[in-house]
Design goal:
The protein is built from 5 helices and 10 strands. By secondary structure, the chain is of the alpha+beta class. The strands form 2 sheets. Strands 1, 3, 4, 5, 6, 7, 8 and 10 form an 8-stranded mixed β-sheet that branches. Strands 2-9 form a two-stranded antiparallel ribbon. β5, α2 and β6 form a beta-alpha-beta unit.
Length: 234
């Protein structure tokens, strides 16, 4: 647990998600799914013992406030084509806490643990799948280049094949469309309670509305991110 003043939001990190004690796992799953339920209309639990985040190649960040879990982030570590890869397996903030900067806080917590060592790589590939233009903008902000590129000026040709390879590795049964990197029907029966928009990046909002008008669709994204967490940079 990271020490913070009483009453403030506190962060809890399990860099190795399989280290979550057995006696806590059901409660953690309940917390994560309850946050999802404030954002999505769901017919079944998204994370469960069967579809579990408690794996050695996963990490979990939880934010707590007033005795309740108010946000979570799940990351997965991969190595593809010699590159260090971080996949954002899932992240959400309880509806009443949106706009509080929690994504950046959880991301920095997770990446400090992953890449804080002076010997950590200077760059890594960040990838994520989303239907939410807000998450796209937040992910893009961590990268020097990204695909799909909105606007087109952020595009890097070397990312196209890596993005497709990562999508095939993580979702081998899911078709992906080039160049938009759209995945049709990826979220099945999940539907947003309120359609999210950035309210600050109209080009991104418009692209999402036109490219994946069905809320079950998703976009798979990949970008090159600089390691700003390494202690060699301090």
């Amino acid at each position: 647990m990271i020490a913070t003043p009483p009453g403030a939001v506190t962060s809890e990190l399990f860099q190795i998600a399989s280290d979550v004690p057995e006696y806590r796992r059901d409660a953690v799953l309940d917390d994560i799914n309850s946050i999802i339920d404030t954002n999505w209309l769901t017919e079944e639990r998204f994370w469960s013992r069967q579809h579990s985040p408690f794996k050695a190649d996963h990490g979990i960040v939880l934010l707590h406030h007033g005795g309740a879990c108010v946000a979570y982030m799940i990351v997965q570590r991969l190595a593809v084509a010699g590159a260090s890869v971080i996949y954002l397996s899932g992240t959400a903030v309880r509806d009443t806490y949106r706009g509080s900067g929690f994504f950046k806080r959880m991301f920095d917590t997770a990446m400090s643990a992953e890449f804080g060592d002076p010997a950590a790589p200077a760059e890594f590939c960040l990838c994520w799948r989303t239907r939410n233009p807000v998450i796209y903008v937040l992910g893009r902000a961590q990268c020097r280049s990204v695909v799909p590129a909105i606007p087109a000026g952020t595009h890097a040709v070397d990312l196209d094949e890596l993005c497709l390879s990562l999508a095939a590795t993580l979702y081998p049964r899911q078709a992906i469309e080039k160049p938009t990197m759209a995945m049709r029907g990826a979220y099945g029966q999940l539907r947003y309670r309120d359609e999210p928009t950035t309210q600050t990046s109209s080009d991104v909002d418009r692209w999402f509305a036109q490219t994946i008008p069905d809320s079950a669709d998703a976009v798979f994204c990949a970008g090159w991110a600089s390691n700003r967490w390494s202690r060699r940079n301090q």
